[in-house]
């Protein structure tokens, strides 16, 4: 597997007009508030390091990875490959995914000390796929953030889904859904809410 890299300039805008630097500041505040780190110095060192994030699509069996550095913007080619990786596998349709999802994964990895290896159960969903999943009874929201390319459903082998949920809730950067019986967490970059 090859890893994609960031390139270039500072100041990438995350969701809602928050700069990546602002996003990372909020991550630091959330970490301190949740007492997830022993000291500000330890957190600053952890946040400043590059991290490898690896995603495995449980449906297509594809693997995708990138090297994440908080000081650099996302390379457009990296985002294009993410869009393809997180495509609606039922309809084989891609959509522009919100890059702030990558920031969320980076933050969860930093705050948990996890390996950064995530199994992706769902990324983008076309409106038709979303409607079909609603009809067959999967508890899918009618106006799902998946349709907008702003949500992922995931789990990882080195952390409990409850841990991921608690860390994501502490970030206060979007929606967090906990599905304990199905063993996955929904993360999105929409309004702050939880279920």
TrEMBL record:
Any GO molecular function: metallopeptidase activity
Q: Could you tell me the superkingdom of the organism this chain comes from? A: Bacteria
TM segments? none
Q: Which PROSITE patterns match?
A: TAT
Q: Which Pfam families match?
A: Peptidase_M15_2
The UniProt keyword set, sorted, is: Cell wall biogenesis/degradation, Hydrolase, Metal-binding, Metalloprotease, Protease, Signal, Zinc
Signal sequence: where?
none
Pathway membership? Cell wall biogenesis; cell wall polysaccharide biosynthesis
Q: Which GO terms describe its biological process?
A: cell wall organization; proteolysis
Q: Which InterPro entries match?
A: MepK (IPR010275), TAT_signal (IPR006311), TAT_signal_bac_arc (IPR019546), Zn_M74/Hedgehog-like (IPR009045)
Q: Which cofactor does it need?
A: Zn(2+)
NCBIfam families the UniProt entry points to:
TAT_signal_seq
Family, per entry: Belongs to the peptidase M15 family.
**Name of this chain's protein:** Murein endopeptidase K
């Amino acid at each position: 597997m090859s890893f994609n890299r960031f390139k270039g300039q500072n100041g990438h805008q995350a969701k809602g007009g928050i700069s990546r630097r602002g996003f990372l500041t909020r991550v630091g505040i959330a970490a301190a508030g949740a007492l997830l780190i022993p000291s500000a110095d330890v957190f600053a060192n952890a946040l400043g390091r590059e991290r490898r994030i690896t995603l495995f699509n449980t449906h297509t069996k594809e693997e995708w990875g990138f090297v994440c550095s908080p000081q650099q913007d996302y390379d457009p080619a990296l985002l294009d490959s993410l869009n393809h990786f997180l495509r609606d596998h039922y309809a084989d349709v891609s959509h522009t995914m919100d890059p702030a999802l990558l920031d969320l994964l980076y933050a969860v990895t930093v705050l948990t000390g996890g390996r950064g290896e995530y199994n992706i159960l769902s990324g983008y969903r076309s409106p038709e796929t979303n409607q079909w999943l609603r009809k067959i009874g999967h508890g899918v929201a009618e106006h799902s953030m998946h349709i907008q390319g702003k949500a992922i459903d995931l789990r990882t082998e080195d952390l409990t889904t409850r841990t991921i949920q608690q860390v994501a809730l502490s970030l206060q950067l979007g929606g967090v859904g906990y599905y304990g019986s199905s063993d996955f967490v929904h993360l999105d970059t929409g309004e702050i809410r939880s279920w």
